[in-house]
Amino acid sequence: MDNLAKNKFTEDYVENLQRITLKNFDETSEKDKYDALCDTIMERINQEWRASKNKSRYERTAYYFSAEFLIGRSLGNNLINLGIYDEVKELLDELGIDFEAIEDYEDDAALGNGGLGRLAACFMDSAATQDINMYGYGVRYREGIFKQSFENGFQKEEGDSWIKDGDGWSIRVDSDSRIVNFRDQAVKAVPFDMPVVGLENGKVNTLRLWQAEPFEEFEFDKFNNFEYDAAVAKKNRAEDITRVLYPNDMQRAGKVLRLKQQYFFVSASIQDLVAKYKRYFSDDLRFKNFHNYHVIQLNDTHPNIAIPELIRVLVDENGLEFEEAFAITQKVFAFTNHTVLQEALEKWPIDIVEEVSPRCLEIIYQINDLLVNNFKEKGLSETEIDPYRIVIYDQVHMANLAIYVGFSVNGVAALHTEILKDDTFKHWYEIFPEKFNNKTNGITPRRWLVYSNRALSKFITEKLGTEDWKYNLDELKGLEKFADDEDVLNELWDIKQENKKRLATYILENEGIKIDPESIFDIQVKRIHEYKRQHLNILHIIYLYHELKKNPDMDFYPTTFIFGGKAAPGYFRAKAIIKLANEVARVVNNDPDVNEKLKVVFVENFRVSYGEKIYPAADVSEQISTAGKEASGTGNMKFMLNGGLTLGTYDGANIEIFDHAGEENNYRFGATVEQLNEIDQSYNPRGIYQTNMDIKDAVEALVNGELDDNNSYMFLDIYNELINPQDGSRGDRYFILKDFEDYKKTHEKINKDYRDKLAWSRKCLMNIANAGYFSSDRTIINYADEIWKIDSPNY
Ligand code: GP0
């Protein structure tokens, strides 16, 4: 901004502030100041937004259909992408306003559970920055993921009504409202558009989130008859549809309301696309070029009911023959799978599908018949066809639907895609090998570095002498030339130290626990899941605690273990893991024998905006899932980009991180997928427990009174799963005990290596320098080139 622009910004801002509050400047609150800043920025964005819309109108566009967009806060990110972050901060400073203080008035838009939703948000940022036409379509939940707090160490959930004070980053577009028909009710779908600003390139894409509303606020005749509850019953039933995000990560809820949510946003979105198409093209075309302009990426199985819905709209509302509509549909849909865990592959009971949309169920049967005929022609017998069926017994298999109809199926990391091909979807791969492809996940460097690690960002620009890396993260490779430059390595170390101090202050304020910024920050933040093995980490801490108790003078570099993450409210064992971590923290942190050397913190309510403070401050990034189980992981990339070293198994994108940054610059441990497959049948966790005293002592602490679970039987539950299975299985399904010893040894190595400051800092540098591949810019360009063919529409 030149001086003129700066003055104009300040003027607009002060004017907005007074206009929206009707107060004089001095009387306005911090919240007022935040609101007015939002307004002022939205005004600026608006011009570029309209220009982008006008320009891209009718170009080939990708539509990212996702039940989740885990956006977080928008203020700082928008300022960064508009290229005015530092200037606005300064201008506010001149007005006596502390930017960081007002930033805290923004609630996270937490419309997602974890990795899958956050990936969608990163993709939005990257598409805009890379000038790719991509619209996001999703749900405007009134309540995002629950707020987590701890009571006595147990997780407690509370609602997250993030828009109760308004939402400064959306525009309600009433004129584009649609009607969504369910079997037993009809509701209005009202779109709220959020601008997605590209990095200083004038491009603004749109994220359109649909909110369910009734046609009328209340029924007047009922009200007149004194039936007050009945008068608003319809309204409530409509609003219920988008009231709350299901807080289950990977677990299928199987509830009518959940399928209603899915059908709701998908139906509104499909109607939106079709209506827009019809404004541009004549009826005579009968949608024959629809696929030239539209490609829909299905983010997991959640939006897959879009497939029959498109057919329904084309056939029932536009007079196409089923065959015509089906042929178009086949060219429009592409599907991304995010997990090999069976519990996340959605299968809907047919009666639920019928309850939501009887017509879609009918179309699903039609597609199923087509599949069966088609496969018979290929020479398959009835039983050979079985695993491919879309309707199996009384269930609709949403993945089968998308793989059969869609033209592309992708996994989210190299290993994951291989497992899809050789195992999960092996039978499909045999018939349609050409549909399968890999798109390794990525993260946006704008939010996860430029914004959240200002100091490192400045350091990089200074060393590279350019800001090009913000658009092309491969440029970071240029940092390698400083690998043996002691001054540079010291500088990098100091940046990490500053970030650790900042986090320590924040943790003291928010968790009431004092941690030492000089200690190793060893961090595991992610959803709580058995396969992610937070309990391996905790058992190891118990082991360390025992060692330090036995030998307080043991040679051990002080370490702070930090956890964060939510458990699905109905996932008992995940909640048990949280209680266990909190209990270990209580015991360790209160024990004067060890608490100079060992600290444990489980931060409350881990979320995007907490992550922005955590990732820059990590020395060690815990990525310890059972090999073969974590499809990709994306937290691993956020740590890497900020110079955290990966302590990880050979799983998901960890493998690619080791490949790019070098195993010698990270800490790999544990069994590989092949090794686990081999021992699977003969695995005997009890045997390990009986022969390894370190393990035995740690596991026993779960039940011998050393740790207190307040009679919840939670620790016994974990104990039983590990070595005393109650269900006749062999126990320890996630191979905790199997990998323990190697994990312990690898930690010992870390504990030694950290003392060599220069060598450690060199590893950090090598990780940052090789993080380019993990930019979601690269991922989204791969989608655009290889799946969407967005640069070469064949019209
Ligand atoms: C996968 F199936 N993921 C699912 C799901 O329901 N929710 C979800 O967040 C995650 C994977 O677990 C992942 O490995 C992956 O990176 C992410 O989707 C994005 O592809 C964890 O980060």
Automatic annotation (TrEMBL):
Q: What is its EC number?
A: 2.4.1.1
Question: Which GO molecular function annotations are given, in alphabetical order?
Answer: 1,4-alpha-oligoglucan phosphorylase activity
PANTHER family of this UniProt entry? GLYCOGEN PHOSPHORYLASE, GLYCOGEN PHOSPHORYLASE, LIVER FORM
Protein name (record):
Alpha-1,4 glucan phosphorylase
Catalysed reaction(s) here are: [(1->4)-alpha-D-glucosyl](n) + phosphate = [(1->4)-alpha-D-glucosyl](n-1) + alpha-D-glucose 1-phosphate
Going by the UniProt record, its keywords in alphabetical order are: Carbohydrate metabolism, Glycosyltransferase, Pyridoxal phosphate, Transferase
Any one Pfam family here would be Phosphorylase
Which PROSITE patterns does the record match to this protein? PHOSPHORYLASE
Q: Which organism is it from?
A: Anaerococcus martiniensis
Family classification: Belongs to the glycogen phosphorylase family.
- Cofactor list: pyridoxal 5'-phosphate
Q: Which domain of life is it from?
A: Bacteria
User: What's its top-level EC category?
Assistant: transferase
Q: What does this protein do?
A: Phosphorylase is an important allosteric enzyme in carbohydrate metabolism. Enzymes from different sources differ in their regulatory mechanisms and in their natural substrates. However, all known phosphorylases share catalytic and structural properties. Allosteric enzyme that catalyzes the rate-limiting step in glycogen catabolism, the phosphorolytic cleavage of glycogen to produce glucose-1-phosphate, and plays a central role in maintaining cellular and organismal glucose homeostasis.
